[in-house]
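Colleagues,

Please find the record for the four-part complex below.
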Amino acid sequence: MIITLKPNTPQIEIDRLAEYFESKGVRVHRIHGENFDVFGLVGDTTRLDERDVRSNVWIENVQRVQVPYRLANRMFHPEDTVVDVEGVKIGAGQKVAVMAGPCSVESLEGLCSIARAVKDCGASILRGGAYKPRTSPYSFQGLGYEGILDLAEARRRTGLPVVSEIMSERNLDEFIEYIDLVQIGARNMQNFQLLKAVGRINKPVMLKRGMSSTVEEWIMAAEYIMANGNPNVIFCERGIRTFEKMTRFTMDLAVIPLLKEKTHLPVVIDPSHASGDWKLVEPVALGAVAAGADGLIIEVHDRPDQAFSDGAQSLKPEKFRALVTKARAVARAVGRDL
Amino acid sequence: MIITLKPNTPQIEIDRLAEYFESKGVRVHRIHGENFDVFGLVGDTTRLDERDVRSNVWIENVQRVQVPYRLANRMFHPEDTVVDVEGVKIGAGQKVAVMAGPCSVESLEGLCSIARAVKDCGASILRGGAYKPRTSPYSFQGLGYEGILDLAEARRRTGLPVVSEIMSERNLDEFIEYIDLVQIGARNMQNFQLLKAVGRINKPVMLKRGMSSTVEEWIMAAEYIMANGNPNVIFCERGIRTFEKMTRFTMDLAVIPLLKEKTHLPVVIDPSHASGDWKLVEPVALGAVAAGADGLIIEVHDRPDQAFSDGAQSLKPEKFRALVTKARAVARAVGRDL
Amino acid sequence: MIITLKPNTPQIEIDRLAEYFESKGVRVHRIHGENFDVFGLVGDTTRLDERDVRSNVWIENVQRVQVPYRLANRMFHPEDTVVDVEGVKIGAGQKVAVMAGPCSVESLEGLCSIARAVKDCGASILRGGAYKPRTSPYSFQGLGYEGILDLAEARRRTGLPVVSEIMSERNLDEFIEYIDLVQIGARNMQNFQLLKAVGRINKPVMLKRGMSSTVEEWIMAAEYIMANGNPNVIFCERGIRTFEKMTRFTMDLAVIPLLKEKTHLPVVIDPSHASGDWKLVEPVALGAVAAGADGLIIEVHDRPDQAFSDGAQSLKPEKFRALVTKARAVARAVGRDL
Amino acid sequence: MIITLKPNTPQIEIDRLAEYFESKGVRVHRIHGENFDVFGLVGDTTRLDERDVRSNVWIENVQRVQVPYRLANRMFHPEDTVVDVEGVKIGAGQKVAVMAGPCSVESLEGLCSIARAVKDCGASILRGGAYKPRTSPYSFQGLGYEGILDLAEARRRTGLPVVSEIMSERNLDEFIEYIDLVQIGARNMQNFQLLKAVGRINKPVMLKRGMSSTVEEWIMAAEYIMANGNPNVIFCERGIRTFEKMTRFTMDLAVIPLLKEKTHLPVVIDPSHASGDWKLVEPVALGAVAAGADGLIIEVHDRPDQAFSDGAQSLKPEKFRALVTKARAVARAVGRDL
């Protein structure tokens, strides 16, 4: 951690500050510059919060050298982590995993019909929302527990593991019992109570990026889960909020290589939410596979115009089949399979 | 709601769509344009979700005329709402309410000392965080229930009502018992389970804006609380996330008149989080009062450099006193008091 | 164009407004809603500016149905445009064009050496900056006219057409004389005088997206060039500015299919500026090709650490060669060549 | 400048790098950390470009301690600069200057009529656009030279100095001859050729912030003008581009104290463009004055619904008069006058 002092800080304050940091267990390396004094702190600074340090009136600026995450940090864990979702292995150059299904679970029969269709097209995990975060209190809020049971039954009938979003600690038991991959949605990426709760369970977690979360905040959210005991975290980019209005969100492609450089965890892309428009889903998905994604999660519905939610970004099964075929060709072109 | 159909939509599909919307209880007004057909839907469209409508393949675009909120909508509730926090009245041209206190509750004695200081300077509500949303799992997470009890005791000793942030439904009982104004933090603005939960209690709620939430999403979050039965909602702007790096967030001043035009609820400004730097707090606070804010919430600490969190943006009591004096002068210049 | 009137607009004002719009040559279709009156304007509304219309006090809101561009609009020009840069054809499913070279022209020999290297790796157009937009007045500003002459000489020696950025109308003659593809940089995307100037020349123009320009503003900038007589415009996405700090900019992948839907012009991607980090260039470039880009423009330097500018995002020739090989495999996987 | 080397950088490379920086005239202070080596560079680093330094493969990260601007830097120029616009003094606690007038000059008589009105209300400088940057090539582009002559005549008749936007170096002579305060618009903030050109003239320049420019980039644009010889620069905040759609731009209030801390130049606020809606102009303007702005620039039109541009954000004279009265009261409340 590099600490820049204000111009003209009295020597006595400089000494006091140096002592203070030494008392925190780090060594202080002093640089006397032309206009500023600078401290270089050497040692474990993970527990020093930059903003707390900055509160001292003699400190002008604080800059981290060491990143604030340890468990997710590739420096301390050089090998790729492979997350196993009931036999589907994700990460480390394994086959690109394809998760697909409806935005919302709407009925058992509808779900099973879509599940069979996506399995037939090549999907290996079934997605479906039972608890739905909706902007309006007047919109369909999901089937809740009934939807969870429908997912469990669809898994029984098709053999596909299931992924679904958890919105409250209160539903944790249902997810432990019936869901194979627990999704934290974008709006809850910094719901720290929920992160701690899923950190204590023995199920893999797929952590979507908050719509305005920096990559560092996202990794720190994964660190919350890992620090509470759960090492099986998958990142899922679903688009960030920008000024552009023609797409729902802006997919940040560079996070794929970036997360792989900084961490050892798998990265999945959600082109459906990232673009918000079914016509854009295929090209965005192909781009993600070419850039090295470990998986895709895609909304598929047999009757998008009658979907209870997000029909606008759902693919029909035949379009999904075409996407999978092309994505497989792209995966092979970059030395992967799908 | 205005619906634009795709060029060359077959007449039979146009008719089908029109029937579909009529079946939803709205009248369809058809416009035959040069390149497009357009439907104008007349009636209550609050329950039609734009994105769901857009999922029909013949629909090019959907635009709302009517806003999607009812309870928060000034059109249906023209008078300003006044929220009463244990005798402190907020909104509708009442005195500008000043809430102040430490970022985190650190100890009972420290809290009471700051409470007395801010009361003496003119604050009418005490703030203090017991449950702290921190980016890092390794940072101080707040005293939790003990902090809530400290707030209750500080209230008893000073007579100041207290405001504190709730992070989980599980803590709702503590807040009902001890806290006068329940704060929903920026990171939980779309934690819809929590919004529903505080919608069912009989306490005023201060709803902070999500760091990347649009004004419409923010109003819809208030609508969640109101639709669950709680009409006493206060908006709190605390800065939005932009590309600018020199400040922590960017305070969006225009939301003050904008929210007052669209809704009937009070608007409070948090200049401490919005700027992230104590040197900027005073000018931002004065600007907010001049622009018509109904209240301010400000972090004050007697020893900012030893604060457990956010010392960088905390004012010392003497600076806070100066701020209150100037803010009062500005309030009077615009026909208010403070 | 859909115009929503304010609630309770007097009938006489409604009639006056309708007459006004009729006088502008459009037909007015009136919808009488429950809370609002709405006008649907039918006819050519390209010349009506939404913001000008909104200035009437009785108008609540204005929404376009028809987009404001004509020449760039695929609706009126369904076939893909192919831009020919001295024999290199770009767009319409042609081979993916690879442009490469140093950020800045630094010397004739250095330029020619890099030019030969990138040609050998498969590039078909040489890039090189002679006039450099630099944030600091104290940074290297480019060789200017000398750099343009070096580019012309490198073209003579290698046979590669050249692309370079123009920063001022005053240099137009040099570009007409020596440069094959005239680049408008991100910072000048709305330098309308410059757009008009390059609209009057007989050379293809590559129009980079402004770092915070919407897709619609970008298409309108192309429309400026086309409306002044030059139909040969290529879009170039180079990343937009967002809150994320770990990358220099955020590449907006979805613009590739989006621009192809809305317009008929080719789309090139600049992964070097979009990511700002040489380690990210290859995955971003592969993603762009998979998503359907018509070309790539990539910074290559034989000694990046001695480059006069942007060494951090420049590839060494051997890495560029590897990128081209992989990009070719991806292009073939999606039915293109490179 | 603090340079962090990659983990495991060979000692020979560390030594080579240190020598390299010493050769650039700075002293290198070495810190040997647990996972990283760090260099602290002491001396004048203004001419070292961070991104150029980062291009070395052994360098992980580069962080500035010293800011990259000198002439605009308050550290080297502690007193406030007062810019004199034909007798109207702006900055350093002088009266808050009010600039007002139509968005576009539309006719001589219309301009003079508005000029007399705004002067009568308390404005001291007349604004009016002769060259207009318009998103669409089909929108009114301004009267050009004729508009400049109208401004000169309005000045002659009313005695008000005039401010107008320059869009091209080619028009520089007109501005030198007839305009008192030369405005650089948001879209040209990084049109470096234009910045250099106005840096060489003997007229004050008002530099609007680019809609997505950081404060540091903005100060560097001022530095361009100053480094070319013109010390009379005024900053003008006109709102930045964010995700929020209900306002045209988001006014960044904190830049007022921030620019005053970092630089010695005056700061003017444009509430008309920042909000884009005449109903928001007054509260935003009052907020700006309370926060310490040195001036306001406001669009006023006697018939906003017939304005050639930006009528939606123009005030009628009577509303402008009310704004000035209130702004004066606020200015006095914070120890200024207006």
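Chain B touches chain C through 25 residues (CB under 8 Å).

Comments are welcome before we finalize the supplementary table.
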